Amino acid sequence: MKGNRIVMEIVNKLKKTGSNELFLPINSKFDGDITVEGHAQISGTMNGNIKTENGNILCGAESVIKGNIEGVDVAIFGVVEGDIKSLGQLSLFGGARLTGSVNAAAFVVEKNASYDGHVTIAPSNYSDE
Predict the structure, then answer these.
(1) pLDDT at 116 over 80
(2) Which sign, positive or negative, has the C-alpha torsion 3, 7, 10, 16?
(3) β pairing state of 97-99 and 34-36
(4) CB of 31 within 8 A of CB of 50?
(5) How far, in Å, are 2, 27, 104 from residue 83 at the CA level?
(6) If we measure between CA atoms, which residue out of 79, 63, 78, 82 comes closest to residue 22?
(7) Pairwise CA distance, residues 60 & 103, whole Å
(8) DSSP element (H, E) containing 115
(9) Residue ranges per structural domain of the chain
(10) For 51-96, how does the pLDDT look when each residue is reduced to its tens digit (9 = 90+)?
């Protein structure tokens, strides 16, 4: 399945750094805005904005995020209420729910994912590197 390949690419990019720059585990909650140099994995609840300077963001199936997200490649399995800016690809996987505006180079929505908002696609921002 193509979705699994995309997730594995993101996970492999996270592993190449030796660690996730930011990890919020299941059953944890964070209130506030975060800017990270590298990658981020959110599996808990977050009320606030998250921005990575040059990394990817993975929102796990248990994640509930109320805030804006900005990163290179963004993969969402959970619930996000906020705007997304992805310089690469934004992927919504089965069971994901997104409400907000999307500005991305590429946007993939799997079966059983839901999206409500406005989409702007700017392919010139996309890089396969």
Answers:
(1) yes
(2) negative
(3) unpaired
(4) no
(5) 25, 23, 11
(6) 63
(7) 21
(8) strand 114-116
(9) 2-125
(10) 998 899 999 999 999 999 999 999 999 999 999 999 999 999 999 9
